[in-house]
Write a structure and sequence with these properties.
alpha+beta, 2 domains, two-stranded antiparallel sheet
Length: about 140
C-alpha cells in the first residue's frame, strides 16, 4: 500500500473533480445556469430555421415547357430572363419577357431552399401583365 503525500489527491477525488468540471462545462454549453434556462432568445429558432420551416411548393420545377421545333431550344410563345441570378432582401431585379403574339402572362416568384424537401416556396405572384413581342437580340461575340 502506498503512503500518500500530505498535499496529494486520491484517484477518487481526481475523478470526482473531473466529473464536476465536465458537468459544469456541459450545463454551461446548454445554457443552464443555477437550474434556470438561459435567455429564451438563445433557444428560439433562428431566422434561417424559421424560413426553412415554411411550407414548400413543387411548382417551381418547369414541367410544362415546350419548344417550337423538336430540335429547337426556344419557345417563342413566351420567353424571359432576369437581370440577376440572385438578389438579397431589398435589392431590385428586372424581369424581361417577350410573348408572341402579344398576350397576358403571370410571373410566379419562388425562393429556393429545403422547405421540407420540396426545394422552394412560392413568395408571390405578379400579374396578369401585358406581354409584347420583343425583337430577337443580336448574339454577343464575347459570350458565344
Amino acid at each position: 500500500m502506498n503512503r500518500m503525500q500530505p498535499n496529494s489527491i486520491t484517484r477518487r477525488e481526481l475523478l470526482m473533480g473531473a466529473a464536476v468540471m465536465l458537468a459544469l462545462t456541459v450545463s454551461e454549453s446548454l445554457g443552464v445556469r443555477n437550474g434556470l434556462a438561459a435567455d429564451p432568445q438563445a433557444t428560439a429558432p433562428n431566422v434561417i430555421q424559421q424560413e426553412n420551416a415554411r411550407e414548400g411548393a413543387t411548382d417551381w420545377q418547369l414541367t410544362r415547357t415546350r419548344v417550337d421545333k423538336p430540335d429547337g431550344c426556344r419557345c417563342l410563345a413566351i420567353e424571359g430572363y432576369c437581370s440577376r441570378q440572385s438578389v438579397a432582401a431589398g435589392e431590385k431585379l428586372q424581369i424581361m419577357v417577350s410573348t408572341q403574339p402579344a398576350s397576358k402572362f403571370q410571373i410566379e416568384i419562388f425562393r429556393t431552399g429545403y422547405y421540407g424537401g420540396r426545394g422552394a416556396r412560392l413568395v408571390t405572384k405578379l400579374g396578369p401583365l401585358e406581354g409584347q413581342t420583343q425583337p430577337t437580340p443580336e448574339p454577343d461575340e464575347r459570350t458565344m
